[in-house]
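Hi Y.,

Following your request, here is the sequence exactly as I used it, all 200 residues.
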Amino acid sequence: NLGVQFVVSGVIRDMGVENPSSFSNSYWARLKRFGKKANQNRKFSVDVFVHDGFSGSIIWQKDFSIVGKWNARAQKKVSFGSAEFQQNEYGEKISNLAGYISRLVSEQLRCQPFMTRISRVEGKVLHFSTGANSGVRPGDKLSLYRTFNFYDADMLKGVELTNVKTVLTVSQVHPAFSTGRISVDSGRLNIQEDDLLVAW
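Below is the corresponding structure, written out as tokens. Let me know if you'd prefer a different format.
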């Protein structure tokens, strides 16, 4: 629905403290915090997923977790990602983890072929929904694939790709879309909207 090749999502599983009693307002808890004897560690656990935008299949997933000291004042509300949050050891570790996750996701996506949907068919000219913003350049060559929907034994929908052994040469490039030409009429190959162009 978004017209994107990949969808990155995540689920935060845990943001709790290891010892809630360390953050109470009791005399002994305050004394321990003052003497740096309290366990002020806070956990952060997140699962990250990368889905293929065309089929919905999971391409990659991994869980991550860190523990850092949460030294904000007890009962004080600190917004996630705020300047005060980032100055905390716990917030700093989450920021570093986010950067690490971003690099790992980029490495995974770099290994995937480039795919884009055909948005309009006009004889030998095909329009597709990716442009200069995604690195497409005039003269690029993309392989043409027909798409077929199928359902597995659990009635989950999947997408099968069939190579029609025809290459499109990109002719015009705009920021968000492009056009290209193929050597035979699209009607002979039964090319339709939502079929795919792929660069391996």
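Residues 89-110 form the longest helix (22 residues).

Thanks again,
Q.
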